[in-house]
Write a structure and sequence with these properties.
Rossmann fold; about 240 residues; 3-stranded antiparallel beta sheet; binds 2-amino-2-deoxy-6-O-phosphono-alpha-D-glucopyranose; alpha/beta; 10 strands
Length: about 240
């Protein structure tokens, strides 16, 4: 695990925007695993800027989002689909055939997302955030490291943290569909970003706690190509 501490969140966004733009330039058919959340808003902005400024071809890349709330319509403003359209897909004018989200509406959908990723040739790089309880994607504490894309019940701390994004707190879904931990670990490269003091304990646990399913992010220590970027506050307990 390669840990990088930068002073300001903005420095992480610019550095990663350059890195991801270069990856896309080098492999126009790249498969990107993408995160939603406040951590990545300014990264997406910087990345779109880089891609446009350098006129990098984006018409052949494929995106696979990590997770989405269960039973939420695509045009709901608080959906992860809406987030991605606003911050990345629409500014880049991506074709809907290039973007993918995990859907498990019925039993028979199980396995389809992992199959789709495999058929596309696997994820070249996955961009991850981390929850205050060290969840990755929506893999809450206790999720088996062997898990593939699945439906989960959100932890109380996740509901508490994310409810601010909903107009009424009651309207926040209590379930989600998420890539599994083994889906995440199957990516060739993993980049994890954390910003702010509320992520400091999760980052410290990810690095120092015993590798265990009770701390989902510790699974990343089992992968040989992980880069972590934290700002001063998120890295303060390392
Ligand atoms: C959310 C998402 C994760 C995200 C993480 C951090 O609940 N499921 O994919 O990385 O928690 O979110 P934020 O960047 O808003 O702190």
């Amino acid at each position: 695990m390669d840990i990088n501490r930068l002073n300001k969140p903005h420095e992480i966004d610019v550095l990663l925007a350059n890195k991801v733009a270069e990856m896309i330039a080098n492999k126009p058919t790249i498969n990107l695993g993408l995160a939603t959340g406040s951590t990545y808003i300014n990264f997406y902005k910087a990345c779109v800027e880089q891609l446009n400024t350098q006129s990098i071809e984006v018409s052949q890349l494929q995106t696979f989002n990590l997770d989405r709330y269960f039973d939420q319509t695509v045009d709901d403003d608080s959906s992860f689909e809406a987030f991605m359209h606003t911050h990345f897909f629409d500014p880049l004018n991506l074709n809907p055939t290039q973007t993918h989200f995990p859907y498990i509406e019925q039993e028979s959908d199980t396995g389809k997302y992992d199959q789709l990723i495999d058929q596309a040739g696997g994820l070249d790089v996955i961009l991850l955030g981390i929850g205050v309880n060290a969840h990755i994607a929506f893999n809450e504490p206790g999720t088996p490291f062997t898990s593939k894309t699945h439906r989960i019940t959100l932890a109380d701390s996740t509901i508490e943290t994310n409810k601010e994004f909903f107009t009424t707190h009651e309207s926040m879904p209590k379930e989600a569909v998420t890539m599994g931990i083994s889906t995440i670990l199957s990516a060739k490269k993993i980049i994890l970003v954390a910003k702010g003091a509320n992520k400091a304990q999760a980052i410290s646990d990810m690095i120092h706690a015993p590798i265990s399913e009770s701390v989902p992010a510790t699974a990343l220590r089992l992968h040989e190509n992980v880069e972590v970027y934290v700002d001063e506050a998120a890295g303060s307990l390392i």
